[in-house]
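As practice, study what follows.
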Amino acid sequence: MPLVVPGLMSKDGDKSSDWMNKLMGKKLGDASNETTFAKTDLPKEHRVVKEGDMMSMDHKPERMNIHTSEDGTVTKITHG
């Protein structure tokens, strides 16, 4: 029987992984370079969640959640 890991083969998992590769370790800014990703290149449905911020619990599968550390560096991407 094959091992099934939730999110590993799903579209949402792939979507989050693709964005993680683009954003991980970068900060959000006005232009893209080695250390910054342009805010204008983000999907329309997104929100930035800083460490310690509260989040609403409404579920929107198309919305990308960008989790950042206190200094603004992207640490995690989720959808929902």
Observations:
- The first strand starts at residue 27 and ends at 29.
- The CA atoms of residues 8 and 14 lie 7 Å apart.
- The longest helix spans residues 11-23.
